[in-house]
Write the structure tokens for this entry.
Amino acid sequence: MNTEPKPPLDIKQAEARFDALAASFADARTEIARTIIGQDRVVELALVALLAGGHALVVGLPGLAKTRLVKTLGTVLGLDTRRVQFTPDLVPSDILGAEVLEQSQGSDRAFRFIEGPVFTQLLMADEINRASPRTQSALLEAMQERQVSVAGTARPLPRPFHVLATQNPIEQEGTYPLPEAQLDRFLLQIDIDFPSLTDERAILVATTGAQDPAPEPVLGAADLIEAQTLLTHMPVPEGVVDAILRAVRSLRPGAENPGLLWGPGPRGGQALITAARARAFLQGRSVPLLEDVAALLQPALGHRVQLGFGARSEGRSTADLIRAVESGLE
């Protein structure tokens, strides 16, 4: 193992690359918006999740361009993209791959591993809550460790590796709710709402004509990896760190939060810091601010908080709790 220390970061070169990459990602965001009309916040959050090196759970009704979003991101960012439709009869080997026994012409037999669709850079797990818990759990190691273990052998996944999973908020019959451990692996939950009247008119005109605008590649996988690396060196002000700690700790069960079943652990704070850096980068800033934290509270912590039945029956919601925390940041 190579134990030599890594060379120090060249500040001037890093600043130059930071500015160049920020401009390139601004172009990529514009290109994505040509195809994903009227969902600027959704596009921003998806890019934040990728730049922060994480995964995202995309929740929205059918027909709100969830699949189109993932395909567009893959094209514009130059990532190898695959899609898996999750169904109740899906088994882990359908995602991870499996070893098969092959016989050569000389009658020699040997096992050969056939990679599953998880061996990609951007995996779309469509309707992830329709698969059984056993199949859902097959993604846990991949999402956390960037590797999968098959037949006792750990196999690394490509770099970068990101999962964008979709979930339908209705039609819960025949679905399996994601366990808390898997929800916690998602950096952000991105909720997609209906477009405005103006945006919906533009969507109808753009997508029903003779030509549907196709996205063009702007970046490559190496650019995304470089941006992710640079963002790990972005300084975070003490005031921002303190605000994140207050937010995370104020959403945990206790006397101040009766009826709260569970709240965010340290991974929630990590998600806020990395996502705040990514959002600042997309905004053209080299330092995250409190406004970045406020904008990311719901996507980063909403799926990490759960109220009990009694609290929900009283009309309380996790969104209200997070809004109260957000108001305390101002």
About this structure: The chain has a mean pLDDT of 85. DSSP finds 13 helices and eleven strands in the chain. The chain has two domains: 37-208, 234-330.
